[in-house]
Design brief:
Pfam families: YdjC (PF04794). The protein is of the alpha/beta class.
Length: 276
Amino acid sequence: MSDNTTPIVVCADDYGLEPGVDEAIVALAARRRLSATGCLVTATGFVHSAPALKALPIDVGLHLNFTEDVGPPGAYRPLSSLMALAYARRLAATTVRQQIEQQLDLFHDHLGRAPDFVDGHLHVHQLPVIREELVSALRVRYGARLPWLRDTRPTHLASALPLMQRIKAHVIGALGARAFSVLARDLGAEQNNGFVGAYDFSRAHPDYAWMLEQWLLNVRAWTVLMTHPAISASPRLAFGQDRRREFQVLASDGFSELLERFNLRVARLSTRTSQV
């Protein structure tokens, strides 16, 4: 590819969730099909899978978790309940802060460094109370050396995508992304420039390869493409078939061909200052 390619961030969520997810992310990162992964540090398997991340040429971040009880005890709630409490300002700020600090501590304990970025499992990082406590914790911990933060507001989505899939992407962004972006800007943290890859797993949808092409049609520099790949899936892994399909597509020659056709390159947002 030429030097004038447009950088995009290809981020795989849920590292640590289960072995088939972790194996997929490591394999794709080694082939430079990914440039970031978000870690569920509370997952019981993360302590064993974390060392594999240390030599990979990707940004490694905290996938902040308030919904999945997959390890140590915590204030985990179904997303609908969490959202209702957050928007009613009925989440206890002290409890929220403790959970954020615990997960930042676990990231340091297992990886020996600060995260390159922070986002949220099911996008909880942008919810009221959580977003304020997160920004406050990052300010205290990292000062001028801040991780970048995920902005979930979607890039312009191709009209060929099913309406309900486009609606889901906009709903995610509407659930606090603008307010979170203001806090991030005031903090002085970098953010991505656009967001694609969201679709409704529970609803009938086109094949992932076709949706991927539609998402890449309109991406800007430093847009995040969110992915959820898995090589294999246990019966308890939600939407395992979709995850396996994502891995197949991202590992294929077809993905490389799409990047070349649209003049894109997979890049690390942590290197943005030196690349733009």
